[in-house]
Amino acid sequence: MSTYALPDLPYDYAALEPAITGQILELHHAKHHAAYVKGANDTLEQLAEARDKEQFGSLVGLEKTYAFNLSGHVLHTIFWENLSPDGGDRPDGALADAIDEHLGGFEAFRKQLSAATASVQGSGWGVLAWEPLGRRLIVEQVYDHHGNVGQGSTPLLVFDAWEHAYYLQYKNVRPDYVQKLWDLVNWEDVAARYAEATARG
């Protein structure tokens, strides 16, 4: 029985045009994200089989594969909800205050997250996250889906920097794609994630 399922998008494939074309969004969601869901479910079954047979020789590879696919599923699920055809502008309230306090104001934060996303080496993500030990917002680069992240940090806003997210439209000019993402940010969703994360600790 499958543990993970591909979520429906909260908008049509064409809803984010012209920033993201319907063709790219459909391929990204229905093919790439779906592959991470299948990969996570398949690897869970292989891990269960390894436990049942007490054959752990392939455990290291299976754990890495599971982390890769599960993280891809989690980050893409957040990404879809972080975007909206009615998005853009900037946050207000508690999230805006935290950005001012921890990241030097909205414009400084915007430049840092844009640079983090555009400069990821190879494939990865730029992420605004809540770091609970220091109780602060941080900006992270995530390599692939699961490398180079602070343990325990909670992603609030994620920008996908994998080529499949933009190459058909923006070719190799990743910074242009990143700038267009700001026009789509669903700050209501990001603020709700911030409120939930800070309530937990």
Summarize the structure.
The protein has 201 residues and is mainly α.
Feature tags:
201 residues, mainly alpha, three-stranded antiparallel beta sheet
Instruction: Spell out the helices and strands N to C.
Output: HHHHEEEHHH
Rounded mean pLDDT score: 95
Number of strands: 3
Shape: globular
- SS-based structural class? mainly alpha
Biggest β-sheet: strands ordered side by side in the sheet: 2-1-3
In DSSP terms, counting alpha (H) and pi (I) runs of 4 or more, how many helices?
7
The Cα radius of gyration reads 17 Å
What does this 3D model show about the protein?
It is a single chain. It is built from seven helices and three strands, in the order H-H-H-H-E-E-E-H-H-H. It is mainly alpha-helical. The protein is globular. The model has no long low-confidence stretch (mean pLDDT 95).
Which helices and strands occur, and which strands form pairs?
Elements: H1 22-53, H2 59-82, H3 93-103, H4 106-118, E1 124-131, E2 136-143, E3 154-160, H5 167-170, H6 174-181, H7 187-200
Antiparallel strand pairs: 1-2, 1-3
Helix pairs in contact: 1-2, 4-6
